[in-house]
Amino acid sequence: MSAGGETIVAQLRARASFLGFSTFGIAPADARPDLPQKLQSALQSGWHGDMEWMEETRDRRESPAALWPAVKSVVMVGANYAPDENPLNRLTDKSLANVSVYAQMRDYHDVIKGRLKDLAGLLARRTGAEVKVFVDTAPVMEKPLAEAAGLGWQGKHTVLLSRDAGSWLFLGTIFTSAELPASTPEAEKCGTCTKCLDICPTDAFPAPFRLDARKCLAYYSVEHKGQIPLQFRKPMGNRVFGCDDCLAVCPWNKFASATRDAKLSARETIRDAGLSDMLALDDRRFRDFFAQTPVKRLGSARFLRNCLVAAGNSGDRHHLPAIERLFTHESPLVRGMAIWAVRQLADTAETEGLRAKTLATETDPEVRAEWSQ
Ligand code: SF4
């Protein structure tokens, strides 16, 4: 390693820390020759569900050089977004509409990207090399590269885990044509622990380090465009966007300090959102309430779909009037889930009355089928 290389790395590390990144490391671009094989077995298993972009971007995802042939080194950074309380505690309060920790704040892509560009600018000025910046915006295998760069290791829950931030780490990536001194890769430190696998409410881990998205509540509540399959509705509980169970239970979180980064801290209005208030959001108020957060991308219809699952699971009949109002919503996703929610809360006479009323006018076959599920 040259003295010049060490100096540049020290400057980059210091700048990364100043910008709010809690971890920093560098990997050679070819550090993970196992990636094509890893990707192939993941795609062959079909565990990515209907996330077709995984297949479509496969060739470019296989290695950094497949995406950009000039790349020599990969700079990886992580930003700690650890919450100040265990999110598992909020699952028992059925009056809450529980949003995953990462989505309770401004979209991290927006926050991290500017900081990453600043860091990449320093690298380009000091070396004269080319740089490219990625925050989950291109087919980059961020987690294995972060492991190679020494930021942490991919836990049995498949998420990158660090000694300092536990499971709560946003990743940013810089590709550069500069050859930089590499960091020491981090070894896997899960040992015999299986807490994340055991807590999963839908048994979505067919094996350690393997996630079947087709069984994952985060996938159904965030990515899936259709109706929530029947077998996942009860396990969803009051989760209306994402699921943190496997992240939150990890023992390594005890070494994480709650983030002090204001831009990566929860908005209290979202963290404490009540289910009654969420069921009453129309499209405009939904977009205002979740402005600049990942939840906004879900759209109000799918968000209401999820809230109706939570209402059906709440055991609280006070939600019935709000649910009934959604019987006439323009989206069949919402109308269908309103029927399911009513059937969880209403008595037999109420259910029969509503059934007759809605079947008289409902024409969508999937919505009508909800009465016979
Ligand atoms: Fe690894 Fe245990 Fe954390 Fe899962 S809960 S990622 S097995 S240490």
Please tally the β strands and state the result.
8
Number of domains: 2
Proportion of residues in β-strands: 5-15%
Q: N-to-C SSE series?
A: HEHHHHEEHEHEEEHHHEHHHHHHHHHH
Q: What's the main sheet like? A: 4 strands, antiparallel
Give the low-confidence spans.
none
Structural class category: alpha+beta
Helix content: 40-55%
- Please state the CA-atom Rg, rounded to the nearest Å: 23 Å
Mean pLDDT: 93
- State the distance separating the first and last CA atoms: 65 Å
Count of helices? Answer: 20
In short:
This protein is an alpha+beta fold. It contains 20 helices and 8 strands. The radius of gyration is 23 Å and the shape is elongated.
Structure commentary:
GO terms for molecular function: 4 iron, 4 sulfur cluster binding; epoxyqueuosine reductase activity; metal ion binding. InterPro entries: 4Fe4S_Fe-S-bd (IPR017896), 4Fe4S_Fe_S_CS (IPR017900), ARM-like (IPR011989), ARM-type_fold (IPR016024), QueG (IPR004453), QueG_DUF1730 (IPR013542). This is Iron-sulfur cluster-binding protein. Keywords: 4Fe-4S, Cytoplasm, Iron, Iron-sulfur, Metal-binding, Oxidoreductase, Queuosine biosynthesis, tRNA processing. One of its GO terms (biological process) is tRNA queuosine(34) biosynthetic process. The structure is a single chain. With 373 residues, the chain is α+β, with helices and mostly antiparallel strands. The chain has 2 domains: 3-84 and 105-176, no CATH class; 202-242 and 274-372, no CATH class. The protein contains 20 helices and 8 strands. The protein has helices at 3-18, 35-45, 53-56, 58-61, 64-67, 108-127, 142-148, 195-199, 217-223, 230-236, 245-248, 268-271, 275-279, 283-289, 294-298, 300-314, 320-325, 332-345, 348-359, 365-369; strands at 23-28, 73-80, 98-99, 131-134, 153-154, 160-161, 169-176, 239-241. The strands form 3 sheets. The protein has a 4-stranded antiparallel sheet with strand order 1-2-7-4, with helices on both faces. Helix 1 (3-18) packs antiparallel against helix 6. The radius of gyration is 23 Å and the shape is elongated. The termini are far apart. The model has no long low-confidence stretch (mean pLDDT 93). Bound molecules: iron/sulfur cluster. Iron/sulfur cluster binds at residues 155-157, 161, 190, 193-196, 249-252.
